[in-house]
Specification:
There is one protein chain. By secondary structure, this protein is mainly α. It has a domain at about 85-115. About 75% of the residues lie in helices and about 0% in strands. It contains four helices and no strands. It has helices spanning about 1-10, 20-80, 85-115, 135. The longest helix is centred in the middle third of the chain and has 60 residues, at about 20-80. The protein is flat, with a radius of gyration of 38 Å.
Length: about 140
C-alpha cells in the first residue's frame, strides 16, 4: 500500500518546464542591466549624501560667522557709538521690515518677468491724448 502512495505522489507533481538557452538570454541581460542601473543609483545616492554633508557643514560655518558678526556689530553700536539698546532694537525692526518688503518686491518682479504675457511691448497701450491734464501736472 505504501508503494501506491509513493506512486501517487510522484504522479501528482507537475513536471518542470525546461527553459531554452535562447529564452534565458534576454532575461539574463535585462537582469544584468537592472543590476548595473541599481549600482549606478547607489553610487549617485552616496555622492549626493556626501555633497549634502559638505553643504550642511558650510551652512553651520556661515551661521557661526553671522552670529559673531551680529555680536560684534551690536557691541560696536552700544559701546562705541553710544546707541541705547531701545534705539538699536527699533532700528533692527525697521531694517527687518524693509528687508521683507524688498524681498517681496523682488519675488513679485521675478513672477512678473516669468509670466508669458510680458513679451508684448508697450506699443499696445493707447498713446496719451493731446489734451491730457496729467501732462500739465508733470
Amino acid at each position: 500500500m505504501e508503494e501506491k502512495v509513493k506512486k501517487n505522489r510522484n504522479s501528482r507533481k507537475p513536471k518542470k518546464k525546461k527553459r531554452s538557452a535562447e529564452g534565458a538570454r534576454p532575461l539574463l541581460e535585462s537582469t544584468l542591466s537592472l543590476h548595473g542601473e541599481l549600482a549606478s543609483l547607489k553610487k549617485d545616492i552616496k555622492k549626493r549624501s556626501d555633497e549634502s554633508r559638505v553643504i550642511q557643514e558650510r551652512i553651520q560655518d556661515i551661521e557661526i560667522h553671522v552670529n559673531l558678526l551680529t555680536r560684534l556689530l551690536t557691541t560696536l553700536c552700544v559701546e562705541k557709538f553710544g546707541m541705547r539698546v531701545g534705539v538699536l532694537k527699533r532700528l533692527i525692526k525697521r531694517i527687518e521690515k524693509e528687508a521683507i518688503r524688498d524681498s517681496q518686491i523682488l519675488h513679485l518682479e521675478s513672477l512678473y518677468n516669468l509670466s508669458p504675457g510680458n513679451s508684448r511691448k508697450s506699443e499696445d497701450a493707447a498713446p496719451p491724448a493731446k489734451d491730457d491734464p496729467w501732462e500739465d501736472i508733470s
